[in-house]
């Protein structure tokens, strides 16, 4: 068998799931050794750096980020490459503001599959998302109003011009 015999979609799914499992495993092990507060600080720093990298990836793919729609599209495309497929619907989309409702999150799904704690998920997701959007275009920011990892039925966020 050759690597090319495995369809690209299958390789992508395996790679994404493996990366998520590794990240979750590190978090669980570090929590046992270092404690929640220290791990939360480390995770925040790691996810902040990950958010910064979104800009480089988007640029390498030639994804525009001149308005809220383009910023959200770039954020979403790169996010699905790195984290896996999200299920979502667009509630509002103008050049100044995009509102999305996420009904399935690959990160949350992976945590649940591994019976891992969801304690810092909403915080690091916000850090990652805000930094990613602001790196893509410093005129915009991102904020969640609903979060599945905090018990809501879905996640809802807005990408909008900074006030």
What does this structure look like?
The chain has 163 residues and is of the alpha+beta class. It has one domain (3-161): 2-Layer Sandwich (Muramoyl-pentapeptide Carboxypeptidase, domain 2). The chain contains five helices and four strands, in the order αααββααββ. It has helices spanning 8-34, 36-60, 68-83, 106-113, 121-136, and strands spanning 87-93, 97-104, 140-146, 155-161. Strands 1-2-4-3 form a four-stranded antiparallel β-sheet. A hairpin with a 3-residue loop joins β1 and β2. α1 (8-34) runs antiparallel to α2 (36-60), α2 packs parallel to α5 (121-136) and α3 crosses α5 (121-136).
In short:
This protein is 56% helix and 18% strand. It has 163 residues and is of the alpha+beta class.
Pattern of helices and strands: HHHEEHHEE
Query: Could you tell me how far the N terminus lies from the C terminus, measured between alpha carbons in angstroms?
Result: 56 Å
**Outline, from the CA principal axes?**
globular
Q: Radius of gyration, rounded? A: 16 Å
Largest sheet: 4 strands, antiparallel
Provide the domain count: 1
Total beta-strand segments: 4
Strand content: 15-25%
Q: What is the CATH superfamily?
A: Trafficking protein particle complex subunit 3
Top CATH class = Alpha Beta
Return residue spans where pLDDT drops below 50 for at least 5 consecutive residues: none
Q: What is the CATH architecture term?
A: 2-Layer Sandwich
CATH-defined topology: Muramoyl-pentapeptide Carboxypeptidase, domain 2
Q: Give the class from helix and strand content and strand pairing.
A: alpha+beta
> How many H/I helices?
5
Estimate percent helicity: 55-70%
Provide the residue-averaged pLDDT: 93
């Amino acid at each position: 068998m050759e690597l090319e015999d495995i369809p690209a979609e299958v390789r992508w799914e395996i790679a994404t799931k493996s990366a998520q499992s590794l990240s979750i495993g590190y978090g669980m092990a570090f929590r046992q050794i270092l404690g929640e507060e220290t791990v939360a600080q480390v995770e925040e720093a790691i996810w902040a750096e990950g958010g910064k990298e979104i800009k480089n990836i988007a640029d390498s793919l030639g994804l525009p980020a001149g308005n809220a729609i383009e910023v959200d599209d770039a954020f979403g495309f790169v996010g699905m490459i790195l984290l896996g497929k999200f299920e979502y619907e667009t509630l509002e989309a103008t050049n100044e503001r995009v509102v999305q409702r996420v009904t399935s999150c690959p990160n949350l799904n992976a945590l649940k599959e591994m019976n891992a704690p969801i304690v810092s998920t909403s915080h690091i997701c916000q850090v990652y998302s805000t930094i990613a959007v602001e790196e893509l275009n410093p005129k915009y920011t991102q904020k969640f109003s609903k979060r599945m990892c905090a018990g809501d039925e879905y996640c809802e966020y807005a990408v909008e011009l900074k006030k």
